[in-house]
## 1
Amino acid sequence: MDLTNAFSRYEALVDQVGQVFNKVSSEFAEEVKCKPACDDCCHALFDLTFVEALYIKSKFDDVFAGKARFEITEYANKTDRALAKMKKEAYKRHEAGESDAAIIEAVSKMRVRCPLLGEEGTCQMYDYRPIACRVYGIPTSAGGQGHTCGLSGFDEGKAYPTLNMDLVYNRLYAISGDLVRELNSKYTKMGRVLVPLSMALITDYNEEYLGIEVTS
């Protein structure tokens, strides 16, 4: 599988997002509270797009082996089961008639430790962390709703430069969709699938899983 093109496009987007974060954090140094060993974002719930999942798994396979890999994979398994249970409960609440806004608000307050969070409160794959992790400390918006880190100094109701995550995810979906076509996968809608980081770490993205026909 040749993932070079998709990964290059993804890394270019990561660089652009990083520039936005650096600009905002420089202009609002008092409000952005990100610092070494701050792990608030490492307990937030979010999912990865297809290209992000493949990228983080590829780097994980490159970086970890032996005992360290086993321990992270074991924790990722436990985390994935916990997330599946949480999502099942959220679905039950939806079926019971609870509003999506209330469910989303409740889910956003849930905390689950990332499998890649080290004992000293630092990310064990910091250089390859997902985009959601990279923008956590600055104001963002998605679906018309603004979001800020609970530890930040940004004042509610005050206008700040805001990163539109809908535009970022549109780019991620575009890269993911093109990748599915490049792989000639029979699962044509795989580019729209979102998965937790924990699932990405424990998934074997082989030809069978990706729906790629192997010819002899």
## 2
Amino acid sequence: MSVLDLARPEIRTLQPYSSARMEAGGGQIMLNANESAWEPAGDVGLGCNRYPDPQPVALLQALASLYGVRREQLFVGRGSDEAIDLLVRAFCRAGQDAIVIQPPTFGMYAVGARIQDAGVIEVPLAEDFSLDISALLAAITPAVKLVFLCTPNNPSGKSISRVDVERVAQALAGRALLVVDEAYIEFSDQASVADLIEHYEHLAVLRTLSKAWALAGARIGSLIANPEVIGLIRRIMPPYPLPLPCVAAALAALSPSGQDAAREHIAIVREQRAVMRDALAGVAGVREVLPSDANFLAVRFDDAGAVYQRLLQAGIVVRDVRRYPKLQDALRITVGTPAENQRVLALLNSPAMDGRVFADGSA
């Protein structure tokens, strides 16, 4: 059985849109795409009057080298969100197929499925936010086409071991595509499972430059998968998903000096994560600081709502995750610069933030 047998048959036979840049490129006088012949003001040589390469070779090569995979195993799009959306559209028939997620987890898996009118089967994580493999596998039905695992998990920060990922991959062979979201893997001691794609054709991995590589505003995300899956995704991708300025920013970040800077910042985040974890554990009103392999900490408070508002009033914005299952008393705090982290700690340790009585007399 081919992994493409899991995909929608109408997508497998779809004649993809052939853009002008796909059909011809590299000429000296470009008159095939109805572009402007003049560069816009302030273009600084990017050539934004021309459509970009749909899948820039230089960027694919840089990412393939970074992730230790082959170029034909890569699709690059507008953040991981685009890859999630395209996977759901390629594999899930509206009103018939489904995905499996493990809440609490990244919300875009379910959003992508519901936009496609695909079912969403929830298999909650265990109380310690570990993966319940038995329950997960018991939930797999013939309708399930995609299973999403987030490691390190957002919003808890807990990782899934390589052994557990491989166990799930073995069980899903011929049944569903396993999609492992590694958006925060650079902050973890665990290595990527992308190399397992060579052994499991139904395994796919999501990576992003938004977090560790400081390019959230550029929206560069990757799908690493079997070349057949990548080919299928390229059939339904938008004609020109990657703006030239974003590609330029990504190539700069992936240059030798850019990689050195990113790794320096990753080391600072990991160090500061430990500092924040220990310091937050001693703050009055803090119930628990969840272990995290990511660039954030999920923190339980006696009154998370009041803490959130007080931080906000001081100009500090954290993520209110109380709507997530098992996190109804928690806030997610990103690890910032050492100065930003100290500001958060100073405010949380101030008399007005003792978790019981504030300066204005409110509880």
## 3
Amino acid sequence: MKKAQIVIGLGFGDEGKGITTDFLASQNPDSVVIRFSGGQQAAHTVMIDDRKHVHSSFASGALRGLPSYFTEHCTIHPEFLLNEREELKSQNGNIELHIHPLAKITTPFDVWENRTNSKNLEHGTCGKGVGATMKRNESPYKLFAIDLIAPKEMLLEKLKRIAYYYGFLEENQIKEHLKSFLEAIDQIDWKIDDYEYLKSFDNLIFEGSQGIFLDMDHGVFPNVTYAHTTSKNASEICKQLNIEDIEMYYVTRSYATRHGNGWMSNEKEIILKNNEEETCIFNEYQKELRVGDLDDKLLNYALKLDAAYTHSTKKNLVITCLDQIDKEMNLDKLDITFKTVYGSFSPYSEDFKKLF
């Protein structure tokens, strides 16, 4: 019987979904890892011995040797993908990537929009063009993964129309923006596959992006992402593939985090230990990584909310960064029964242990 394991962040992102996915990949080496939301803005860091990789355009099983699959709910930026592919190759990771035909393609013009639009900067952005891509694809100016293998003349015409959509009218300016983008497309052997590809695997690992409180429907607007960060998309794919054996892995740090603007409960200054490998640092678009105490009521809210989207009865809790604060977690206030509670030490440690 086919099985699915779904990894979901219980907060505002940065919970440890990458190392949780890598942990599951180490336990199930014949699996495929599926991204079902977000895109190249992810920064899921995995460390294996002396190898370290930040997964964005590849899923977090790649360093472990597993193939990646990006669904139609994701975005792809060819130039970012090419750069990460070369880095993964140098780390002996798996660069096999299959992409759904209807995955959205981010163009240089989308990145420009994300980085210059004052509303985007106010609401919060990673500056990778994901939000602009999703919004543009609600207009007539769409671009999908399947277009990357369309006749070149057709692709160029679609890109030109997208440039016009954003106000780029000068031919030389458009060509300059597209030069390295088109070169990247030509250097990649695109594997465009629908869900038939997934049927060859008995175990599917679904890797979530960001966290439940950034969900486009359930976060506090306007500081949300343009994606469903609950298990909604993953559960719908499981239904299409007739997978009924579903196990959830809900992830939180031992303290709360939020990278960028927006509401956050229990925010306070916390002295962290053993966080030298932290990759969630200040950048000009997201700004600071904010921290605070965990909110038991918010965790319970997130768990009950996600239960509306999944029919799974097997649920696990994963707590990361247990060695970064002195305060112990009180799990008695979580009103849900977990099959197993796992703990991980340091941000990207392979040292997962069963706590309960």
